[in-house]
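Section 3.1: Structural characterization of target chains.
Under the original work plan, the team committed to producing a structural model for every single-chain target entering the pipeline before any wet-lab resources were allocated. The record below documents one such target. The sequence was received from the expression subgroup and is listed exactly as submitted; it comprises 443 residues.
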Amino acid sequence: MSQSISFRNIWKVSLPIIFSGVAQNIVNVTDTAFMGRVGITELGAAGNSGIFYFVLLVLGIGFTIGCQIIIGRRNGEKNFQEIGSLFNTALLFLLPLALIIFILVKLFSPFLLAELTSSAAILKASNAYLSIRIWGIFFAFVNFLFIAFFTGITETKVLTKATFLQAITNVILDYLLIFGIAGFPEMGIAGAALASVISEFVAFIYFFYFTRQKVDREKYQLYLKLKFTTKKLQRIMKVAFPIMLQNFMALTSWLIFFMIIEQIGEKELAVSHIARSIYMVLMIPLFGFSSATSTLVSNVIGQGKQGLVLTLVKRVVILSLGCTLLFMPALLFFPTAVLSIYTNNIELIDASYPVINVICGSMLFFSVAYIVFSAVTGTGKTLISMGIEFSSIFIYLIGAYLIGVHFKMPLSIVWCSEFIYFTLMGGISILYLKFGNWKNSIV
């Protein structure tokens, strides 16, 4: 049992997820870098509409994280056939959900974006991007479910291959479709959206092929009988619905944060999206350790070893902080080289330096806060984690609005609101793990 919370086993589960995060962020960096060379308007529009798209995706992400927690618990209990039944029910729920979201976006997103955007140029470019990007939601939702399955059973190596294949496809198509290379049409921001949709489809094909060829589908009863079970869905939703809401709130808070910055100016918005892209690169190890934390906590509880959870969390925090610190020197000592990846606009580069310093500091808070928060989620007490997320976001957004819009402080000071968010999230999560009633949670 000690092996399951050893540093070695944490790495075994986390490292493939981290590598898949690297692949995902290759996509993020490439999109931002290419848009930065198309224009400031396109950079801001792709960033804002991309966040809008991910706000919609978090419904699927939250649902599949709930699946992942239950799959992890069943894996710890060695109840393998139940895992496939959960997967099948989740699949038959996610596809209609994707269709509903797709229809709603096609009907209402132009009106909603118009209410949220003050720049006519950014609005036009955002609509062009989102009208194509939304087609990828069907493949994305199924991909999230595959990720939940493989992470829940702690067989995460496949994630690396799938996401790197997705990343390579996206990078190549970005270059060809944005700029019109090698006979392809020059589509600009619409080309970036189309490249992302195709790359999600490629990842879906790989996941489907791999499970048919390499996974013991008899052992897990994995989509052998596509039967929708209402009781299974209710069980998933009991765990997943609070996560869906908390993820929706988290991504919505990012959207609102950038809408606040858009009120300050287009240059500030472009700088912030460059900073966001760098932020996401810094978060690569953290998201890997976060996902591993939820899964391992659920597995440990499933094996009846609740007393080891806090030891597990401490070890993951050590690894998370260590990996985060590895990224810092390059960003702190060679910021111009890093920023030049995203833009060749000297004005944007100069304006980005103070924000980069802020996010380096906030990442140290994040590396602790997000791990302990993920442990709370992994216990299955997802209503508690939703409450922690909501209270932290509420205070964070009030702070950002007051600093940026009311007091009109510099952009770097607006970004300091991140410290408010992570301090609250981490502090409340630590208190709950130490004193809360989570050890006998049932999922």
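The CA atoms of residues 27 and 194 lie 13 Å apart.
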